[in-house]
């Protein structure tokens, strides 16, 4: 009686040690519950998690009938025959044989062996390791029972393990001989949409067989709701959007939704086969035609840029500042590109790229036009003591500052949009036509409305500059054409922005693309024509008389004699060319007659320009009067003739002062300094 307690204590400690050895996968003892680690390259695809003892969420279960797995790529009977042959030859080396098979075949989860000599061994692959168990315990009982349930070679009833694997079902293939009994265990991939697995999950799915299709979700295992129901072809769900993936089985099983059927697609839907969405189809042929026209216009802008560069020294191009003209063409190119970006399917990149092309093109094109108007206003303003000169480099500096400001503005817009995307906000949204068809488009933001108001403000400022310089006389009527370009952009863009808020949300995507296309060719194309066509037209009219050259900006009778006793009457007694033939005239007479004609034309020009330009001083050359202090008058007159004002004449700046720019009455120009009649005409005028 005294020996009983120590014996019971010894048995208890031995049993606890056995359980600890079986539950600990880190010990290295091949004979008693050893664990072999798998290398990373041979690790199986399955990730099995060890479930601790006392788990009440899962219970082991065995089906009543044996069944073979579906979709299996292994020849299990052949593999079993090969395994029996090797085991019968070398029974003691079973652990190595089982290890090699489990490493080579990731489809297998375990192998069990029982010999006639009562040699037991269970090999399981758990958490990237192979675990060998030699004892029959409560946790491994279901594996040994499955091995004993089959009397001949074949498939055993499927069972669910809840201890070593996470509620995983297994198919078992058993083979027996006189000396050994072997079993292979394969995990079951449960497809809840397949009626074959109805016994595994306790029933079939609840999808509407008439209007929906069941799509399995394998990660659910045997837990109810591992499927989703999507609409069949020709059916749609009225509440679906582009992020809708169907009716989830978990919501159906838990009665979170009451209606999970689809409806027949009406005729208004262009596409009704993409996940139950009544989608508006985009016409590829129409979009291709629009893309071709836009690319052709962009190519024309590039060609005009090359022509402007080659003709930059011509009078019409040079007077219009060819560098600024090139920047206008760059802006036009970018504005044409906005429609090209819309050719592609809506995406995050498109929603970010289109505003960049629009705003940079707008500020480069119309910013350059506004700066040209600003230059006209500065050069031709009246009643100012000093004349300001705006050089081409100054305009380019101003334009660079404007472009840099817009670049910073768009960079802020892009960074904020990307930040919203990181917080699960999308730049895309679903729009619906008046017929109910859905399509995906870029989401309108409040930032866009602020940008549109900024564009309108800039255009109004351009109109203000045009009105302020309305009395300015510009070569080739450039101011009028620039004002017309800005006015057209202001009118069309204002109407377009109003329509985009009121009408566009209910339009078909093809109609929206056509609207953007029409807007571009009602604003950008007229700007291209108004800025460059007059210059090329005037360039073809270079060979014409002086009267024809000024006929575009002075009255027809400007060359009529105003005062019969003026300077025109000085040489009235001279012989006219028409009275004497050229054969009777000597070369000296011809030269003198031509010089007299040049002088008369110079005087005509001076008088006419002074009449049409009130800002030009009527005094001789616009010079200041003599100083009021008598002591400085003689000194001023003494050095007056020695003062020469050097002027830098460029292609875009023909003069530096108003008097010289319009050939004022300060004597004759340098071209005619050698004329003998110049001194006579000046003396007569004084």
From TrEMBL:
Classification via Pfam families: 7tm_3 (PF00003), GPR158_179_EC (PF22572)
Gene Ontology cellular component list: neuron projection; postsynaptic membrane
Main location class: other
Protein keywords: Cell membrane, Cell projection, Disulfide bond, G-protein coupled receptor, Glycoprotein, Membrane, Postsynaptic cell membrane, Receptor, Signal, Synapse, Transducer, Transmembrane, Transmembrane helix
Domain G-protein coupled receptors family 3 profile: from-to ranges: 286-537
Transmembrane segment boundaries: 289-309, 321-344, 356-374, 395-416, 449-468, 480-499, 511-533
Signal peptide: 1-20
GO MF annotation terms: G protein-coupled receptor activity
Domain of life: Eukaryota
InterPro entries xrefs: GPCR_3_C, GPR158/179, GPR158_179_extracellular
Subcellular location per the Swiss-Prot or TrEMBL entry: Cell projection, Neuron projection; Postsynaptic cell membrane
UniProt key word Magnesium: no
Region named Disordered: 637-686
Compositionally biased spans, kind Polar residues: 662-671
Membrane topology qualifier: Multi-pass membrane protein
Family: Belongs to the G-protein coupled receptor 3 family.
UniProt-recorded name of the protein: 7 transmembrane sweet-taste receptor of 3 GCPR
